[in-house]
Amino acid sequence: MRDVLSVASECAPLVKTGGLADVVGALPSALAAHEVRVRTLLPGYPAVMTALGSTSGTLCEEEELFGGPARILAGEVAGLDLLVLDAPHLFAREGSIYLGPDGADWSDNAERFAALSWMAARIGGGCLPGWTPQVIHAHDWQAALVADHLAMQGVTGIGTVLTIHNIAFQGLFEAHRLEDLRLDPARYHSEGFEYWGKVSALKAGLTACDRLTTVSPGYANELMRPEFGMGLDGVMRARRAELTGILNGIDEAVWNPAEDSLIPAPYKRPRGKAANKAALQAEFGLPEAEGPLCIVVSRLTEQKGLDLLVEALPVLLERGGQLALLGTGNRDLEATLTEWAETQANVAVQIGYDEALSHRMMAGADAILVPSRFEPCGLTQLYGLRYGTLPVVALTGGLADTVINASPAALSKPVATGLQFWPADAEALKNALARLCNLYSSPSTFRQLQKNAMAQPVGWNSSAAAYARLYDEVSPA
Ligand SMILES: Nc1ncnc2c1ncn2[C@@H]1O[C@H](COP(=O)(O)OP(=O)(O)O[C@H]2O[C@H](CO)[C@@H](O)[C@H](O)[C@H]2O)[C@@H](O)[C@H]1O
Fold first, then answer.
1. One domain, residues 429 and 320
2. CATH number for 290
């Protein structure tokens, strides 16, 4: 049995802004089947403290943690073995976990997440009675200082793994804060955590952790190229031997069309989607239509390429297709999409974040559109596969790794599970939408694609085994 401390800034179902939370929340139970015991360290945001309740005990205290006292609490919540960093001066704030009321990053995000890494390192050093992990698994920049903090605390004999969920987020801070963040000035150089005159928390982890992973083999390759490495491609190339791409899975208990209590009519076969489609159209105020009902469930950011969809949309509408979109983010994009919905009968837009609605959309739609410019893995195309909702995706990162394009060869086998297009531009997306409409107009072909999609494995099993092997490799002898 391996003991692993997973460290992250979010974890479903407790606190979620994106796919990171899903992965951090799902991995522990997937790993349990592979002889790995995971305890998850999270910041004590109000939602986490409330979920923990009063049953927890204090396991370890710190008098002064970046401006105030702190302690580690423990408890079981939603099947997770949680360790919670209770530090009210850093985390007892309402609103977004990353952003202040003005929409900008909290000005002390450096200290907030340095504190998380510092306490992870303390746990690695044995501060909890009776439990010390063999491996610390850090997720994204918010946990990436952990290897440096282990070194600063003089802790050795612990394996470290850093997973990159999205290299666009790097945790950059002014260099003069370096010592306040309890970092070693001797590592402030181009092969350490220095990045264009700043401290990069992500680069700290990329240069100091024993092993690096990212969330698909395709993105692992892309990260080593300037177009995708966001300035860190050189670091990724230098650490090529320690970098692995391990595909994300989805929680098959939460995303199961046969037993999903959040959808109107659970189903096992594609034809069972019809009742869900009618309900979804009614819910969004969409009429019946000749073409496919497409959905988007997404953060509205540059990465996700939804500006391309705005340009390509007429092709779908001319063919009698429909769009129902759920998302939030970029204000201009929200306004443009809302305008489309106000002027087009076949476009409906819901601005906001709504987990239950996202299930109803997966169940009711014919296709899900994911036109991302880059996508480390992507989860919504995996939900789409499981629900027989064909993914139409850009050929990048994990989208390229998880969807089998409906090429003539793949259609004839038949193994195709969706549509891919490249480059990630409006013209290629228009072509993909036209191809989708063609396939949709042949019901038997479309039904076969849906069956193939629903049969594609999208769970955690083989990826959990890959993480377990990695933990074995980095564990001290
Ligand atoms: N408005 C809304 N309402 C309800 N639910 C919404 C929503 N907007 C988004 N979601 C949900 O949030 C999650 C988003 O996960 P993704 O993996 O698709 O992208 P994200 O960029 O957040 O994750 C990053 O990390 C993950 C995890 O490694 C990688 O898969 C991904 O490529 C990388 O960019 C999904 O569960 C989705 O259903």
1. yes
2. 3.40.50.2000
Ligand 1 pocket, CB under 6 A: 18-20, 22-23, 165-166, 215, 248, 297-299, 326-328, 353-355, 358, 375-380, 398
CA dist 258 and 246 (Å) reads 27
Ligand 1 atom with minimal separation from the 370 CA: 18
SS3 37: strand
DSSP state of 38: E
| Polymer length in residues for the chain | 477
Domain hosting 223: range is 2-249+461-474
The answer to whether residue 336 is domain-embedded is yes
Phi, psi of 343 (to 5 degrees): -105, -10
Q: Give the count of alpha carbons within 13 A of 388, CB side only.
A: 22
pLDDT at 29: 95
ipTM of the predicted assembly exceeds 0.85: yes
Q: Is residue 344 part of a domain?
A: yes
Distance 93 CA to ligand 1 centre (A): 23
100-147, pLDDT tens digit by residue? 988 889 999 999 999 999 999 999 999 999 999 999 999 999 999 999
Which residue among 10, 163, 166 is best mutated to probe the pocket of ligand 1, counting the most ligand atoms within 8 A of its Cβ? 166
Same domain? For 188 and 41 the reply is: yes
Confidence (pLDDT) at 16? 93
Residue pLDDT, tens place only, 376-423: 999 999 999 999 999 999 999 999 999 999 999 999 999 999 999 999
